[in-house]
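Need residues for this backbone.
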């Protein structure tokens, strides 16, 4: 599995631990009747060389937590769940500096030590997606992760 694939798989595992009963996907869109659910995708990246001549990629991972679909009869109550969910996710990601979890008990070797930082969240939003037939009620997080690529000498 690629580093990016592993990164998304580890995020999925952590999210399911942060909010028990949630489902998580390593992609931007999923058809699911289960709530709450997470969607994860790779965002932009920057690259630089560090003092050890390694390439360091700072990658933003966007995670969307959906707690409801705003359909006919929606009353807004699921928004109240987000307060606790936001705190649970931040606490989980801070406690897993190498994206370790029950599913992945060891730190990811390609991640710089302590280089996972929740960068921002949108707060409660009504989210539109061009491929989704409904309005999603949730929050989006940006998480910055530093990945290191070491040169291999032949």
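Answer:
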């Amino acid at each position: 599995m690629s580093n990016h694939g592993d990164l998304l798989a580890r995020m999925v595992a952590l999210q399911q631990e942060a909010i028990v009963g949630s489902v998580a996907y390593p992609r931007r869109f999923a058809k699911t009747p289960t709530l709450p659910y997470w969607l994860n995708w790779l965002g932009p990246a920057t690259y630089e060389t560090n003092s050890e001549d390694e390439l360091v990629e700072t990658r933003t991972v966007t995670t969307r937590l959906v707690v409801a679909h705003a359909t006919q009869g929606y009353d807004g109550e699921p928004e109240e769940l987000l307060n606790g969910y936001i705190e649970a996710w931040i606490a989980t990601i801070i406690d897993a500096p190498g994206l370790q979890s029950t599913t992945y008990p060891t730190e990811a070797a390609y991640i710089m030590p302590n280089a996972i930082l929740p960068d921002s969240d949108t707060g409660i939003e009504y989210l539109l997606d061009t491929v989704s037939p409904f309005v999603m009620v949730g929050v989006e997080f940006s998480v910055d992760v530093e990945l290191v690529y070491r040169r291999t000498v032949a």
